[in-house]
Specification:
Low-confidence stretches: none
Number of strands: 0
Order of helices and strands: HHH
Mean pLDDT: 76
Helix content: 40-55%
Structural class: mainly alpha
Radius of gyration: 18 Å
Length: about 60
């Protein structure tokens, strides 16, 4: 029996990008939609937070904490 490719591979085939990159591309699109709908820029920023490039990496604990 032939095994199905992993879900991430199927996702890449359908969207031509990784799931992480796709998620990152959704945030600016949603922010644009909010701004076009006359949403205040600060409200749009809080509604669509930008977590930064390294947000998915666990932060090391500091000594003594």
């Amino acid at each position: 029996m032939k095994r199905a490719p992993p879900l991430s591979g199927q996702f890449r085939a359908a969207t031509a990008m990784s799931p992480f990159r796709y998620q990152k591309s959704l945030r600016p699109q949603q922010a644009r939609r909010l701004l076009i709908a006359d949403e205040d820029a600060s409200r749009a920023g809080y509604a669509v937070p930008n977590r930064g490039v390294f947000s998915h990496i666990a932060k090391p604990s500091l000594p003594g904490s």
